[in-house]
Amino acid sequence: DVKTDLNLLLECLKYQMDCPLSQKEALITIYSICQQNSEASEYFREIGGLMFINDLAKSSVHCIVKEAALFTLGIIIESNVYCQQTLCTSALFEDLILFLIEKDSGVNLKRMSVYVILVLVSNNKNGQTYVRDTGCISLLLQLFRTTLSTSEKNLSDENTEPCYQLWSSVCSTLCACVNNPQNEDNQNICCSVFPYAKEWLESCTEPEIVRPICSFLSLTVANNSYAQKYFVSIGGLDTLAKVLLELMHDSCLSHLSMKLAVVVTKTLDACIANNSAMSVVLAKYHAVSELLKLLSNETLDTGEKISIILTIGHCTEVCEENQCELLQNSGLPLMIQVLTESQDEELIKAATFVLQNCKQMTEQLSLKLYDNSLNVNNAEELDVQVQKRCLQDYWKKAKEILHRINSIEKEHDEERVQGEVFVDESSVANSEALKSHEVNPADPKMCTERTHKEVRCPQLTSKLNNQGLAPSVTSAPQKNETVNTMDAVSTRQTEQRNIPCLVTELQTDSVPQSHSINGKTACVKNQSGYIFLVTFFLSHLDQHSFCSEKTEKVKSTSSTSPSHKMADLRCLGCTAGGLSLNSRTFTKMLQSCLHRCDHHRVILEAEERYRRQLRKVAAGNNSRSAAHQSM
Length: 631
Fold this sequence. Notes:
Layout (H helix, E strand, L loop, with lengths): L1 H14 L4 H15 L3 H9 L2 H11 L3 H17 L1 H7 L2 H12 L5 H15 L3 H9 L2 H11 L14 H18 L5 H7 L3 H10 L3 H15 L3 H9 L2 H16 L3 H18 L7 H4 L3 H9 L6 H14 L4 H9 L2 H11 L3 H91 L8 H9 L1 E2 L2 H9 L18 H14 L1 H7 L14 E2 L8 H9 L3 H15 L4 H6 L4 H4 L7 H10 L5 H33 L1
Parallel strand pairs: 1-2
């Protein structure tokens, strides 16, 4: 039975110390029995066979015995975890380092030593720690850099193949040092050989080189942000993308290239899985479209499809360029097809991941479009609100002005009614006198005098128009619109009481104090509410500027006599608007004035004629009364 055979083989090893070939044959028989047989390995450990082979590997002077002993140790350790724990010591790692650095050690002995390191660290956290603490991992990295030269293209050559086998074993051992369980410290140490791995990928796309390197890169950068960023920083991701493009070009003719493209795809996914933002590097190589082509290959198995779809998902997770490329290359229908036709749960999850990215992309695109339209709408709405506020302010001010104008018009109408009653009473007595002095419109002379009596205020009119008051004061007289002088005099004081409340709205202080005034009488449209404006502004003009400007205007535009010019210099009737006057005091003031204007001169002459008529009437009445008394 197995136990008896193992006891006999162990005795053979002990008694055949001088026969290395017999020891080698016994070792080969032992590992063939223990290979994939945990119980046999455990029994061989219990009878002391495991430690005897360990001592034999260190003490034997025969290279073939050393190699066979190390290989047998590796098989037993790999078959039984208790044997692994028994031999996982720093002393064994140090012995293995000696085998690797000795000049007399051949490639096969180094390869067997690397194999023992591999089984010691596989699925063993303690072994990963020992390999780092003893410096064994640094030696492995040195072998990765120096064992095989990038110039050696023919890997099947007799001289090259042993070195390649050692290099391949080193790659596998480094993978075990950083993964299962993940060892972040060992990952960070292994980052030092990334430039050499990149150089290998750039110089060779043979499966014998690409597969070990991609496996090593995938496990070293897995779940390690530092390793991922470093690999991307040296251009490693660009190199992988280029290798993928080259393999996809060859996959049309070679099934092997297609399979190797899947391996590169897994490595790409490992490099961006924890940092999808780095997938933007792949956008310029159109990696998503190449992955979709690879996914459409019917020879792929389920595991390969899962790897490709997950890589597409990580590429499109945050990168808009890759998302657009997915849609442009009909990636969405392909994902839906995989989702509906597949029965594999993991494959369905991977396809759902990609579809979820598409959903998020659509939502983000909708939000961006909404935000853009909202920004535009907000800007337009803000402009409209500002315009509305401005218009509301304007309407508010306009309404206030209109309200004050209406109140002033009402008061002005009441005062005018009172004035008209007074005029009607006095007109009975002097109607005959006034009829004799009516002006004939057809008389050219009288029209000329009438023209001289008109006062035009074009600047004042334009200023009022600018203030937004319409209808504005006009300078051209209209028919039947002459202002009654007695009416103006009788209502001047009332107007002066009512006007100041409107002055603040019109901001009369902005009106220049010097206005070019032609003529003597303000002529306005006889519309209620606006006649007081001219009266107010004329009565508040500066006296000196009024007289000086009027004098300059008369000098420049008129060729009248010197006496006529002197009459225009200064008139007390024009400058006494603010004084409290009645008919008697006003007449006396005009009589004492040396330089009366045409307007007040005509008024004074008319009053004198009126007084003469009254005296004549009174004299006639007196004569009739005396005759009646004498009778």
